[in-house]
Amino acid sequence: MEISGPWLALLGLAIGAFGTLIGAGGGFILIPILLLMYPTDEPEVITAISLAVIFFNATSGSIAYARKHRIDYRSALAFAAIAIPGSILGVWANHQVSRGTFEPIFGIGLILLALYLLWKKAGSVSNGHVGRPTTTRELIDSEGHIYRYSFNMRLGMGLSAAVGFVASFLGLGGGIIHVPAMVHLMSFPVHVATATSHLVLAIMSGAATVQHALAGSLEPGLSRLMWLAPGVILGAPLGARLSVRVKGSWILRFLALALLLVGLRLVWR
User: Fold this and answer.
1) Number of folded domains in the chain?
2) How buried is residue 113: exposed, middle or buried, by Cβ count under 10 Å (0-12/13-18/19+)?
3) CA-CA-CA-CA dihedral for 213, 211, 49, 112, to nearest 10
4) Range of the domain at 144
5) Which of 162, 149, 68 is nearest to 109 (CA)?
6) Per-residue pLDDT reduced to its tens digit, 99-154
7) Collapsing DSSP states into helix, strand and coil, what is residue 52?
8) What is the value of pTM for the model shown?
9) pLDDT tens digits, residue range 200-225?
10) At what angle do helices 5-22 and 175-184 cross, to 10 degrees?
11) Distance of CA 83 to the CA centre of its chain
């Protein structure tokens, strides 16, 4: 099912736009596609390509979101700092599993997350707090929207450490876990969560990509990355612009349905 370079670029464009729209980096779409396209590749090669693509997508998307003034920089840097050690450990663990083990783990993880999002009535911002709020933020974006929210910073740090490991192990980047956690457990507004998560993704996936490169697992996929990267870089600003027009509730519903379909496909392939 090998496809040519220009088609990879178009795939990158779609992943860049949708990944930025939902703040997830697009890895949950790219990984299953790469697994189908390259059935003989080991998990570390697939995840190395995905994390590198996520890095380009998240960096481009972060720049777009920065222009919209939606990033909570203090929270993003704190979350990224604790996520990096977890991401390094996740890359190491990824190198220890076979493809036959990796695929069902990946699929089951996506199904569980999708069911959680659907059960929580995705998009609801005022779901209460887990833990006593310790930090309060206020942001005003470029459109004049005011976002006020409070959350438990210790919870955010703990979640980020776990996200760093799981996301790098599966090659997802972390947004599909981090955004729902920030919204449902920490009461972040959806649009702030997607933008802030994108900056965390850029830092975390960058660290994981460097580790893959040092281990030699990125080199076999460099030719594919050369086509995918320009597409995601161009698609990310498009996703950021679309996020202004799409309600937060729909962003998370799209995410949940996509996760469910992909997870079922991997478990029962």
Assistant:
1) 1
2) buried
3) 170
4) 5-267
5) 162
6) 888 888 888 887 887 887 677 654 444 445 566 888 899 999 988 999 999 999 99
7) helix
8) 0.80
9) 989 999 999 999 999 899 888 888 88
10) 10
11) 13
